[in-house]
Amino acid sequence: MGKRVRTDLGDLMVLAVDIMLMIIAYDISYFLVYGTSTNSLVWAPFVESVPVMVLLYIFLMTSYGLWKTIRLDLGEVIYSVFLTTGTLSALVFLISRFMVDLAYPKYIFASGFVISFILISIWRTAAYWLLISEHGRKDLLVIGGRDAGRIAVKAIEGMSRLYNVRAVSDWRSGDLGKYIEENEVIFLSDEIEGKEKSSLIDMLMSMKKSVYVVPGNYEINILRAHFERASDKPLIKLRMLELTIEQRILKRMLDLVFSVTGLILLSPVVAVAAWKIKAYDGGPVFYTQERLTRGNRIFRICKLRSMVMDAEKETGPSLAEYEDGRITPVGRRLRASRLDEIPQLLNVLKGEMSIVGPRPERQSFFEEYSGKIPDYKYRTVVKAGLTGYAQVYGSYASSPEDKARYDLLYIKEYSLLRDIKIILLTMKIMFMKEKAGGVRKEPDIYEIAREKGLDITIDI
């Protein structure tokens, strides 16, 4: 508990220093333009704008992932600082244009962005290593069944700064108690059965272990449940897995604003991309395909063509693979930056899709995955989206099971503010190469342990 309190205080301190440096940066920017005089007509509105800047900074930094940064690599932290300070500067500049009393020269915003980016980047680099050092590298045990090895691989690939995977065990193993004693952090797969999972969690909590659970349908549905009672009997009322009428109206308003704005601003990008696609092989610029949206309704999605013509003529319906030979050189660049998805703003405008939601799936894949993954069928209780949880927190190569979990979490936790955050995060990942690409073959735990020379006890 003490460690948790220290971590929370550390995060608050990092935020407090961020805000102080941001204010200092814009003060320096002001004095570079106006000198040390505070008699200027601009000084009062400049000071009045500071609370707005602070609130915007807090919203942007959390949206771009600058809260709890130790799970990111340092490069992503600096990239997030760049996006946060840049977006802040742009937003405050736009606000000042519409509010005459707050209007002041654009030079303040330009230099304020540069200075704040430099100062906060230096501070965040120092804070990053301090937090990593404070956390330490903890020994990790993964408990589950067939999926335990896959979870361990993900931990090795993405969390090696924080955790040292020491053991991977089946939850029915006779040596499980010994593995638990030897490790401080425990990851639990959703494969563990109900009563056994409950008993296991109870034991781990009593031993003061740090426990992380891969959520199944039960855990996701219990989120944001309401406490009620029948006389003196406590009850938990589960939220229905759908959006209310009010939420759908607000969501549609957001869709209209972003789709119209996006089509206007990005039309030159589409024009250039269309010219390059046509010049490459003379084929059609756009590609349409039947997909499913809310209520399993079929619609035709529109994308910029990124593959060769008749790409599925011989293979039939198939997902794009990593370094897929069917993807054209132009298409590879479009996919890397997600620009091939821009025409889907037309689908959003028509009401077939939403800006944020589960990605639309082909009917054949939807039926296949629904037969294997119980939660998959719930993806169509809301409109299909241009981007979503699975896109900003997962990747193209994330498993269908994990994508379904992300989509269910999104539906359960929906809010208009969360949609805006996902849109901001989408802007961030557009230039992160590891988030794009096709489906890759995942190494199993035996293979990755051998390749990396890791000393892992594997009992699955």
Structural overview:
The protein is an alpha/beta fold and 460 residues long. The protein has 3 domains: 2-134, no CATH class; 137-214 and 444-459, Rossmann fold (3-Layer(aba) Sandwich); 245-429, no CATH class. 53% of the residues lie in helices and 12% in strands. The chain contains 17 helices and 11 strands. Strands 4-3-1-2-11 form a 5-stranded parallel β-sheet, with helices on both faces. It has a two-stranded antiparallel sheet with strand order 5-6. It has a two-stranded antiparallel sheet with strand order 7-8. The mean pLDDT is 86.
- How many domains make up the coordinates? 3
Number of helices: 17
Shape: globular
- How do the helices and strands follow one another from N- to C-terminus? HHHHHEHEHEHEHEEHEEHHEHEHHHHE
Main beta sheet = 5 strands, parallel
Q: Using the CA coordinates, give the radius of gyration.
A: 25 Å
Q: Would you tell me the structural class of the helices and strands?
A: alpha/beta
Spans where pLDDT lies below 50 across 5 or more residues: none
Number of strands: 11
Report mean pLDDT, rounded to a whole number.
86
Question: Which range best describes the helical content: under 10%, 10-25%, 25-40%, 40-55%, 55-70% or over 70%?
Answer: 40-55%
Strand content: 5-15%
Strand adjacency order, main sheet: 4-3-1-2-11
Head-to-tail CA distance between termini: 32 Å
